[in-house]
Amino acid sequence: MIAWSHFAEIFIDTVSDVVPIASIIFGFQFAVLRKPIANPAKVMLGFFYVILGLSLFLIGLDLALFPLGETMASQLTAPNFIKQFQLSLGANFEWFDYYWVYLFAFFIGFSTTIAEPSLIAVALKANQVSGGSISVNGLRIAVALGVAFGISLGSYRIVVGDPIHYYIIFGYVVVVIQTFYAPKLIIPLAYDSGGVTTSTVTVPLVAALGLGLASTVPGRNPMIDGFGLIAFASLFPMISVMGYAQITQWLNKETKREDEENAL
Amino acid sequence: MEAMTALLKALFGSLRDLMPIILVIAFFQLVVLQEPLPNLVSILFGLLLVVFGLTFFIFGLEMGLFPIGESMAQAFARKGSVFWLLIFAFCLGFGTTVAEPALTAVAGEAAEVAAEGGMILNDELAMEEYANGLRYTVALSVGIAILLGVLRILKGWPIQYMIIGGYIGVVILTMFAPPSIIGVAYDSGGVTTSTITVPLVTALGVGLASAIKGRNPMIDGFGLIAFASLLPMMFVMVYGMVVA
User: Fold this and answer.
1) A133 interfaces chain B, CB cutoff of 8 Å
2) Three-state DSSP state, A193
3) I need a labelling partner for B179 at 20 to 30 A (CA). Which of A15, A38, A223, B228 fits?
4) CA–CA dist B31, A256 (Å, integer)
């Protein structure tokens, strides 16, 4: 059922991914800091768990979800499928005929982000540093909503063929405006959440979706228009995380005001 | 017994994290596309591996990656050598990015785009040269980004002005960069930060901000990843301009 050579290959890939990191860490530890590591056995075991965990995770995804998700992305973007659910009357498809694609983009963006290991790591750290006031799942859901919206908007952009930079620059303007109004404590974390969302789980599925769309929509060049979904997925979490903090702050203010009024 | 309950609880948590993907894929496969699930046994086995993998990863995170990131940050802060800390920051950024498989894949695709767009010669050698150049450009930019981010934590500079400045840089470069590289450049910001780098860099930032007096780990500790996703965009566009 599972080829050992496949397991070995992914395991070796993950190890070779970790080797440069480990050699930098241990090199500096011994040559510059010149101090033994506290609990070396535990740290080593931790590194081993990380490598083992990541390998199992990737193999499992390869076995269970990636092939299905990738085929699905190309099936949903195929002209035959779109024709079946066409809403417009003309011979050519309108942008809204791709509604299943946008829905798929939204849900796949949301669900892959929830499972993203590096986002779990950052959320755990943020929860610990903030003394529990930032909840692990609250942050993850806020980021996942941002990615979901970003990827569906990115799919729409590929369908209509607008230049990518108008969207990105507009997104930047929103981020800058929010920065001035959002609670100060959330800003660095919000900026970080843009970069952490797109790794092991999200990138392969989203890339397949972008490629599928760009190669089936008439007039798109897959080599040029297939790129850019990742950029959308890293921009919108910043907006949604700051938005989440702003809404929470506003709600707290409202309840406080109500409390005061009741006290009077 | 206690360890068993902890493990079971962690496994259950991982399963809950994966539930949304399973539901989405099953819904689209069965209801929208109306096709059966192929080789169900292999899928279930794969899911089992994913659940165990995620659980091990999180255990390892708390045992290995977080503690080492934080203890190194504290050791550097105690040693007081800014020079070595910055060298370490650069090496960590450069070293973890240059070997990143996602980046290698994107660089290869970008070379094909460039060859098709007539920016470089359409042969193996020119494409490989271009892809390698791109890879080193991104790795260099991530190294500089982490260095800059660490310097910011040391000095306590406010992050928003630096990031807004970076955005302005991206917008200006977009106007001058060759159109075919813009999509690649925007994407390169997202792909550089791998699953192992992120926890390590976050622990480093938070550890530094907690070890230095007058820094707030929430305000000063986060933000390294933001630099690591912004700077590559600018560097890749400059690279596109230089090559063209």
Assistant:
1) no
2) helix
3) B228
4) 46
